[in-house]
Amino acid sequence: EFGRRVTFSLGTGAAGGAHIDALMELVSEGNASGSALYPQTLPRAVGIMLSFGLTLNPFTHSPAYQALAALPLKQRLNELRRQKVRNAILADSDKLEPSMSLASYVQQFDMMFVLGNPPQYEQPPELSIAARAAKLHVKPAELAYDLLLENNGENYLYLALANYSGGNLDLAEALLRYPHTIPGLGDGGAHCATICDASYSTFLLSHFSRDRTRGALLPLVESVRKLTSAPAAVVGLNDRGILAPGYKADVNIIDFDNVHICAPIIRHDLPGGGRRLVQEAT
User: Fold this and answer.
1) Are 42 and 197 in contact (CB under 8 A)?
2) Which one of 2, 76, 157, 218 has the lowest number of neighbouring Cβ atoms within 10 Å?
3) Residue-wise pLDDT tens digits, 219-252
4) CA angle 168, 171, 173 (to 5 degrees)
5) Buried (b) or exposed (e) across 162-182, using 16+ Cβ within 10 A?
6) Bridge partners, 159 (sequence order)
7) pLDDT, mean of residues 69-91
8) Intra-chain end-to-end CA distance of the chain, in Å
């Protein structure tokens, strides 16, 4: 009605994306009649990272773990390695009430993976903590606990909360293919010891346009458009985003064959020594 551009978050939950086609048809019809609607979608799962050194882990709800949570990480890890402490925390996990929303979220072991180095954001269901635990004939919570103690407590578990129905990124790819969507929702500031999605732009180039094996690739030229002229137009930066006379010369030269995202690391460089996740790229 007022001629303003509109952008909103677009994703899919565990139930899948049955609503997406109808929603995007409304977007296309609106834009064809003069509106300017641009859904933002994350080029990978909407997920969180879990570890004993971050804000959340699968045992955050446990009273036995909470009794240790204020200890410095090195001291806490020493305590967590004690069999008596391990038994107490896992016993708390067995008593988990489904109504405890946060605790239930961080124990979705069927959608939880070891992120790895280099990080892997499209792992098959058979590599989930639940599936791996079943093969080992142990409880998923036991396997998660032991994995989080590896690598001096710097092993990260990645929990795919949305955009990952079916155990792949097919829906994320479908969302990116719509002409009016732009990549976004990369959480680079809030939840800074839980989420690190600011690397989505590099991931879009390296994974979706080059490395993906569990589904179709996006054409490189379209990925570049989604990172340049498309978002520039959405936010009204009409003097950049394409290579043309008179436009701002914002040019990135990329060694496409060697573009990679690195594993996330924790830095304690916020005020008061606060922690945040950082993810660099090559």
Assistant:
1) yes
2) 2
3) 999 999 999 999 999 999 999 999 999 999 888 8
4) 95
5) bbbbebbbbbbbbbbebebbb
6) 48, 112
7) 96
8) 45
Residues paired with 9 in a beta bridge: 40
pLDDT tens digits, one per residue of 31-44: 999 999 999 999 99
Nearest to 196 by CA among 272, 276, 121: 276
Measure CA 154 to chain center: 18
CA 244 to chain centre: 34
List Cβ neighbours of 207 (8 Å cut-off, separation of 6 or more): 43, 44, 121, 122
How far is 12 from 186, CA to CA, in rounded Å? 16
Strands 274-278 and 265-270: antiparallel
Q: Report residue 100 CA to chain centroid gap.
A: 23
Return d(Cα 33, Cα 1) in angstroms, integer: 11
Distances (CA, A) of 160 to 85, 165, 167, 267: 28, 9, 9, 23
| pLDDT tens-digit map of 120-167 | 999 999 999 999 999 999 999 999 999 999 998 888 999 998 889 889
pTM given for the model: 0.91
